[in-house]
Amino acid sequence: APLPGKRLSVSGVGKRFGGVSALTDVTFEARPGQVVALIGPNGSGKTTLLNVISGFYRADSGEVRLGDETISGRSPHRVADAGVMRTFQTPVVPEMTVRDAVATARYRSDRVSMVETMLRLPRYWAVVRRDREAVDAVLAACGLTDVASLPATSLPLGTRRVLELARALVVDPSLVLLDEVASGLDEEEVQALADVVRAVRDAGGTVLLVEHNFSLVRDLADHVVVLSQGRLVAEGDSESISRHPEVLHHYLGE
Ligand code: ADP
């Protein structure tokens, strides 16, 4: 099913913490159907930028737009309502089945009130029926159908990461933010995750990926943005970026 990916525009974003400039005048775009990778050494501002985009931090200058809307200055909740979905380095999956973990992610938008849910009113069941198809489709697209009734916590780490991605995808996100999703995974698990991210991109999703694993970046990213000390120091396709001195130094050990 096509995803309603929107263009992410980060324009002149700056963010300071006391005397530290975590981000200085950062400008780039990510388009629907594109995977953009954000790379840079520790402390270069990647996490701060994700926090600005998702509304956890307020930028001191510049703006973040999603399609035609300005999302900078909104609360995290309202940024999520605009369709910005983030997966975390440490996935938070409660003790529930894989299917329920995906289904509950879909209910986060307040289409059904807590009272309706508790009282199992008709509107609740209408939403459940409508959402069941969406949940099944995402489980299938992520290769999770066979494990749908297992407890989420019983899955190997790689599959739990795919589940986190499935929970982001089930709300039809306009932008998916992936934070170090490959860390700790073996090569086979990384490839399985990369396949899902490619499917998201090919379905028209907009993906912004913070990633240390440069071979995954090379594999997956259509466009690479390099941060160093809070500034954008290079951008381009992964081929040209892999020849950049900063990247050679920090990622390829040269
Ligand atoms: P990265 O994710 O690339 O490792 P960060 O965005 O975490 O980089 O950090 C960028 C800079 O901002 C660092 O110098 C870091 O110490 C500083 N920083 C990040 N978050 C905070 C914070 N909440 N308070 C103070 N300084 C911070």
From TrEMBL:
<protein>
    <submittedName>
        <fullName>Branched-chain amino acid ABC transporter ATP-binding protein/permease</fullName>
    </submittedName>
</protein>
<feature type="domain" description="ABC transporter">
    <location>
        <begin position="8"/>
        <end position="254"/>
    </location>
</feature>
